[in-house]
# Entry
Amino acid sequence: MPVRNGLWLGVIVAMAALGVAAVTAVAAPQRDYTRLRSDMVEKQLRARDITDKNVLRAMGKVPRHEFVPASLRSQAYADRPLPIGEGQTISQPYIVALMTQVAKVKRGDKVLEIGTGSGYQAAILAELTPHVYTIEIVPSLAKRAQGTLKRLDYKTVKARIGDGYKGWREHAPFDAIVVTCAPDHIPQPLANQLAEGGRMVIPVGKQDALRGQQLLLVEKIGGKLKVTSIAPVLFVPMVREKGTQ
Ligand code: SAH
# Structure
């Protein structure tokens, strides 16, 4: 079947290209990453609806290639999510920028992130305020991200291993909460830990193709929650610690 053969050939050629790109990129000079990063900011962020100058500056500064596995560095600035191990992913750059813009983080704000993953979103937040707290449930990811953040001098980020559903009560209330894994409802502890006037950005819904998930902006105004739908999204599910519900 020529069509199928052609298709396979295409796949093999693409795989070979990917392999070559990955090998060359591991040794790519810093200036190549700088160019890839500024292209990302222009074509994926500014050309869409990312207008917040501080968010654009942070996205143009944080070395995303340092947060992805070495074999995927050549694709670090591509317009898509990438695997980071343990079945988890680093979000597409546009989604990181959109969530950060919607969270309206100002210098001095106290911010909580749920789902540290690679540490990339935490680094973006740390460019905006020195008060960043982040929680990851998978210990190996948490440890690697803590190492990456320290190596890149993001020393103000406070990270811990745990179930982010419960938030981080000792440091509440938070001016902004950014959730990067999807629960099927808004966790009550996170709503409780949001400051008056605070913003929570959270994907909510099941990981199923029919209903999908919605990225929500949850604001606390006069003690009440105001929920606005931002965009349909696809995040890894929020998992719970054993023995909790
Ligand atoms: N923000 C990350 C991407 C995160 S992917 C980055 O910038 O790279 C989502 C992460 O949420 C995964 O690492 C997953 O292990 C974590 N996660 C899932 N459920 C969680 C929970 N209950 N508490 C904390 N982290 C959780």
User: Anything to note?
Assistant: The chain has a mean pLDDT of 90.
